[in-house]
Specification:
CATH architecture of the largest domain: Orthogonal Bundle
Helix content: 40-55%
CATH class of the largest domain: Mainly Alpha
Number of strands: 4
Distance between the termini: 91 Å
Strand content: 5-15%
CATH topology of the largest domain: Multidrug-efflux Transporter Regulator, Chain: A, Domain 2
Length: 185
Amino acid sequence: MLDDDTTPVFVISVAAQLAGLHPQTLRAYDRLGLVSPGRTSGRGRRYSARDIRQLREVQKLSQEGINLAGIKRILELENEVNALRRQIVELQVALEAAEARVVDEVAAVHASYRRELVPRPRSRAMVLAWKPAWTTAAASAVNEADVITAEILVDTPASRRDEQPEGGSREPTPTNPQTIGGGGR
């Protein structure tokens, strides 16, 4: 099946005609290793579409004044560049696949985190603010309306400790409602 340009299908006379060269020139190029066609079981030469293009390139370079050794080196380097380009494409495809695998693995690791093991505890604390009555009649007594009580949420490292320190009660802190004002809630 002729599905690519590397399938050797053209006999030497047809290849010479397509390349615009004499068949004897094609034989010389084959001997020098400039263009190496495929062979049949009877050792006959068969040229592919790629070989025809390469013959035209050799002819063009020869007409520009480059000798056959230089043309051979140019063709070798062009073939090497083409092989490296194919390798780059293969490596890029492999790299993209590896990157996709890494992204999937990272997502799987993140999905496996047990978020319920990291709670954010909050404690309740009582804050008392009072306003002294500076009138002479109420100087010795605090009016109940002058005391403001507020309940707030406090999230501090001290509020996250559930146990009391050794040796008894805690010092009065805003996060320990049992010790503020001498009473608990």
